[in-house]
Specification:
The complex is a heterodimer of chains A (244) and B (288).
Chain A (H helix, E strand, L loop, with lengths): L1 H9 L7 H14 L4 H4 L4 H10 L4 H19 L5 H20 L8 H5 L5 H30 L4 H25 L5 H21 L4 H28 L8
Helix pairs in contact in A: 4-8, 5-6, 5-8, 6-8, 6-9, 6-10, 8-9, 9-10, 9-11
Chain B lengths: L2 E10 L2 E11 L2 E7 L5 H8 L7 E6 L2 E2 H4 L1 H4 L2 E4 L11 H11 L4 H14 L15 H13 L5 E5 L7 H14 L4 E6 L11 E6 L2 E6 L1 H8 L3 E7 L10 E7 L3 E7 L8 E2 L4 H8 L7
Parallel strand pairs in B: 3-8, 3-9, 6-7, 7-8
Antiparallel strand pairs in B: 1-2, 1-4, 4-5, 9-10, 11-13, 11-14, 12-13
Helix pairs in contact in B: 4-5
Classes of the chains: A mainly alpha (244), B alpha/beta (288).
């Protein structure tokens, strides 16, 4: 009896190692039921927002910076050339957006991104929808500001502001079906500016609202057509990004 | 859990990259061995649904993956041959970005990221930029990305390319530890990467699977085909018609380790290893 008591007195509880607990928890976890709902976000809206705003957000800062430059410029310097200025600023802002979309070109991350639940195509669509919408809201306010400071009518300003946005995206999607060049978007930026300036210069004298609206509608139609064609081509090629 | 490939074929113009591959994959590590250009990457890209097959189907637990779509992608982890990650992202930041793309809930992503950074021994590099990582660390981060969604099917396309022997050994142990309850396919042309850890070996040549079985079965088929002998230096030329696995030239004599279907007089039979198996199948001057 005394021997038993002595043993009990001398007995010390062994220290439990952290690794042991971790491995035990891991072992238990493997037996827990694991459904898709446990791990994955089901809400498409939440998914879209998460994807759009994950990663680098320098594009947002740049967009705001360009907007400030525009506000300053239109007020102090180029009031008379407002249409040209808004076209240029709009295409510059679109260029920043395109850069944010295409950051996966240079590093070949697309291959692992393609095997994700939210594939590269979906990321592109989500970004076009959400960032595009934000961009249009911003442009809308810039156009409104220009309207109060210049003699041009609001619809014309709006059309020339939005025209480069749709034209840039339309050209990007359309041309990347045929050319797999990383320099494509730089070319598009230059192209869009030249085309916009030419168009605006040509029709500036007429200054008809109907013509402005017609230009805008044609760029929207071209945008929808090229994005549709792009996704069809993507599907045919097995979904690889065409510029890779 | 089972992955069935049924007459999977991919044709690029007139070139047949993958030719009617039919096989069943089960949990465990399956090594895909093949020379460069044998169609390994194309086959793996079809399995992870990056490229669509020209013909044939893939069934996951009896269901066509084309119908499963997102449900299938939930269970896929892929590490491509040319692993690209944004160099200016921090390690943790990139893992969160990928977790978002994989559609993971933030709470689940946090648990997984902590667990995986510990597992791949990158906890200290958590806040470092990807461009500052060494080759081995970069590959380990790739494995962490691959395992973020706790996939049931893990596809690794030449994951040890460019690693030094120590990193290669660590990587081998890591892969072995994850292959218990998952279907792991590891593509390589480096035999030492899969020796001792592969449950099954698949040998691919010219777009077709020419061998698929347990290593011991494949090695048994090689018995009686591996020889060793020592010959005078000026007599070596007579043995060059055989596949020479190894030759050690001495002052007067040369030791030869040969592969041959016919018996070589005076030579000692050796127990075949996986290197012999690989060279036996790719003896026709293909790149090793």
């Amino acid at each position: 009896m005394n021997n038993w008591k002595r043993k009990l007195k001398d007995y010390t509880v062994p220290e439990v190692k952290r690794e042991k607990i971790e491995s035990l928890v891991e072992l238990c976890a493997t037996y827990l039921p694991k459904t898709i709902d446990d791990r994955f976000e089901i809400s498409k809206v939440k998914q879209a927002l998460m994807v759009t705003f994950s990663g680098k957000k320098s594009w947002l800062l740049l967009e705001l910076l360009v907007s400030v430059i525009f506000l300053f410029g239109i007020y102090h310097i180029v009031k008379d050339q407002a249409l040209f200025f808004i076209t240029f600023i709009s295409s510059l802002m679109t260029f920043i957006l395109i850069l944010s979309f295409l950051q996966n070109i240079s590093y070949g991350t697309w291959e692992i991104e393609k095997t994700c639940m939210i594939s590269t195509e979906k990321v592109l669509l989500y970004k076009i929808m959400i960032i595009g919408l934000l961009h249009m809201v911003l442009l809308f306010f810039l156009s409104l500001y220009t309207f109060f400071l210049t003699p041009y009518d609001f619809v014309t300003i709006l059309c020339y502001g939005f025209f480069p946005f749709f034209l840039s995206f339309a050209l990007l999607f359309h041309l990347s079906i045929y050319f797999h060049s990383k320099m494509l978007f730089l070319g598009i930026f230059i192209c869009v500016n030249i085309i916009s300036f030419l168009l605006i210069s040509s029709f500036h004298a007429i200054s008809s609202i109907a013509l402005s609206v017609a230009i805008l509608i044609s760029s929207i139609v071209y945008f929808l057509f090229s994005i549709h064609k792009y996704f069809i081509k993507m599907e045919e090629e097995g979904g690889c990004l065409l510029w890779n | 859990m089972e992955l069935n490939l049924n007459k999977l074929t991919k044709q690029y113009g007139s070139k047949l990259a993958v030719d009617r591959v039919t096989l069943t994959l089960q949990p465990g590590l399956t090594a895909l061995l093949g020379a460069n250009g044998s169609g390994k990457t194309t086959l793996l890209r079809m399995i992870v649904d990056i490229i669509k097959p020209t013909s044939g189907e893939i069934f996951y637990d009896g269901k066509n993956i084309m119908k499963l779509k997102e449900q299938y992608l939930c269970d896929i982890g892929y590490m491509p041959q040319h692993l690209g990650m944004y160099p200016n992202f921090k390690v943790e930041e990139f893992l969160y970005y990928m977790a978002t793309l994989k559609g993971l809930k933030k709470s689940y992503a946090k648990i997984q990221i902590d667990k995986l950074l510990h597992k791949v021994n990158l906890e200290e590099k958590r806040h470092h930029k990807i461009k500052t990582l060494s080759g081995g660390m970069y590959q380990r981060l790739g494995i962490a990305v691959c395992l973020l969604n706790d996939p049931k099917i893990v596809i690794l396309d030449e994951p040890t390319a460019g690693l030094d022997p120590k990193e290669r050994m660590n990587f081998k142990n890591l892969i072995s530890s994850i292959s218990q309850d998952k279907i792991v396919i590891l593509s390589t042309h480096i035999v030492s990467d899969i020796s001792e850890i592969a449950d099954r070996i698949m040998i691919m040549k010219d777009g077709s699977i020419i061998s698929y079985d347990r290593p011991e079965v494949l090695l048994k088929e090689m018995e009686g085909k591996v020889y060793a002998l020592t010959v005078p230096n000026d007599n070596v030329v007579n043995y060059e018609k055989y596949t020479i696995v190894n030759r050690k030239v001495g002052r007067e004599e040369t030791y030869l380790h040969l592969l041959s279907d016919e018996k070589i007089e005076g030579a000692t039979l050796l127990t075949p290893d996986l290197n012999d198996l690989y060279l036996y199948h790719f003896k026709d001057g293909e790149e090793f």
